[in-house]
From TrEMBL:
InterPro entries assigned to the protein according to its UniProt record, in alphabetical order: Amidohydro-rel, Metal-dep_hydrolase_composite, Metal_Hydrolase, MTA/SAH_deaminase
Keyword match Hydrolase: yes
Keyword Hydrolase: yes
Molecular function GO labels: hydrolase activity, acting on carbon-nitrogen (but not peptide) bonds
Name by which UniProt lists this protein: Chlorohydrolase, Atz/Trz family
Lineage of producing organism: Bacteria, Pseudomonadati, Planctomycetota, Planctomycetia, Gemmatales
Keyword entries, A-Z: Hydrolase
Organism: Fimbriiglobus ruber
Pfam families: Amidohydro_1
Length: 421
């Protein structure tokens, strides 16, 4: 994004959270054009604007969602964990019921909600890559993962060929990058994981897979039986010879060095070997809604495996606010380090999708992507507890992308955002 603006403006607030460094009480962030010029402790620079009782944090990163399902809020409620395939069928039925016009409106609505929450980088998994045009035109960064599905040899080959064609027609821009997402071990023929990985390696693009989302998935791969076997038989897709052997085989199949996002990981053993460049994307409220056992995110982080957060879609989650995911974790695990939790919704997600040279933390030279988050009217020994507090004000968050404050508007009946000039 070219920007000829050279005027600098310095902002202060009650707290500044760079994410890459400790919080600064009454610190300042200086923005020059579209980039951050400086992040300083209190007293180094005279602020031009005091944002008040807010935390200035990096733009939020939602590493996993499905914007095309944004119209499903309340229509496909999560089931108990042992009936996960019933929920999955309701999502398939919902998706098939939507016209192209309705789906496009859903994408716009989901995008607007994401931006209102302060998201400045989105990892979106999209059937046929259909969110590309909307996200490429929006004031945000994004990786659009084209979803690949195919258990039979014929459908697997078709998925590979259409992915290759789609990548040839969708080149990275300054704000939007293509990616591929072989959907899951129960919906993708085992050879397609490696084939898609090779396409990602040749294009130096990101790769995402839903992995170990439910206990039924474990039973399917280990014993070739259970709810997923029945689900596939009912759909006429029971092809056990095409299934991978286990989750480790999926992880190893795409060990090509490119960024890899393994989404959910609810039932991954904490000792699972993760290949270089791997990230686990944990969706806390969706995980809890299905009643899964405690997620192993802390064990993976302790091993040095990167973990970031996503909201999943509105087919399973109440909203698309990734900061609310972090606050949910804080309420469940109040002793979990606040600095790590902040990175899980900012820097770690940017690293996972190969955007950390531009965004994910407040550092000189990076894009001026930031959010002003209202704080409670009280003190705390650790400032992070204010940021993640359940009693934080629900007031609107002001967010900046590439040095410009974003404003909400409606265009053609669709809610959207634009940068203020």
């Amino acid at each position: 994004m070219s920007d000829t603006r050279a005027e600098s403006r310095t902002y202060t607030a009650r707290w500044v959270f760079p994410a890459s460094n400790p919080p600064l009480h009454r610190g300042t962030v200086t923005v020059s054009g579209s980039v951050i010029e400086a992040v300083d402790p209190h007293g180094v620079r005279q602020p031009d604007e005091d944002l008040g009782n807010v935390a200035i944090i990096p733009g939020l990163v939602n590493a996993h969602t499905h914007l095309d399902l944004s119209g499903a809020r309340g229509l496909t409620p999560p089931t108990t964990a042992d009936r996960f395939t019933d929920w999955l069928l309701s999502v398939i039925t919902y998706r098939r019921s939507r016209s192209p016009e309705q789906t496009r409106a859903d994408i716009h609505a989901g995008l607007a909600e994401s931006l209102r929450c302060g998201t400045t980088l989105i990892g979106d998994i999209a059937a046929e890559g259909q969110t590309w045009d909307v996200l490429a035109a929006a004031p945000t960064r994004a990786v659009v993962f084209r979803e690949l599905i195919g258990l039979s040899p014929e459908r697997s080959q078709t998925a590979h060929d259409t992915a290759e064609t789609w990548l040839a027609g969708h080149h990275p821009t300054t704000s939007t990058r293509p990616g591929l997402s072989p959907h899951a071990p129960y919906s993708v023929r085992k050879g397609l994981f490696a084939d898609a990985g090779r396409l990602c390696r040749s294009g130096k693009i990101s790769y995402a897979v839903h992995l170990a989302e439910s206990a039924a998935e474990v039973e399917l791969l280990t014993h070739r039986r259970g709810p997923f076997a029945d689900f596939l038989k009912d759909l006429g897709l029971w092809l056990p010879d095409g299934l991978t052997e286990d989750f480790g085989a999926v992880i190893e199949a795409c060990d090509f060095g490119q960024p890899k996002l393994f989404v959910h990981g609810n039932h991954l053993a904490p000792t699972t070997r993760m290949t270089p460049g791997s990230t686990i994307v944990y969706c806390p409220r969706t995980h809890a809604a299905f009643g899964h056992p405690p997620h192993p995110f802390r064990e993976f982080l302790a091993r040095g495996v990167r973990v970031c957060l996503g909201t999943d879609s509105l087919a399973s989650n109440p909203d698309l606010d990734v900061l609310a995911e972090a606050r949910f974790i804080h309420s469940r695990y109040p002793d979990f380090p606040g600095d790590t939790l902040l990175k899980m919704v900012t820097l770690f997600g940017a690293e996972a999708m190969d955007w950390s040279n531009k965004t994910g933390s407040l550092e000189p030279g990076k894009s001026a992507d930031l959010v002003a988050v209202p704080l409670p009217e009280r003190d705390a020994e650790d400032a992070h507890t204010l940021l993640f507090a359940q009693d934080a004000p629900r007031a609107d968050r002001r967010s900046m992308f590439c040095g410009l404050w974003r404003s909400w508007m409606t265009v053609g009946g669709n809610a959207c955002f634009a940068n203020e000039m």
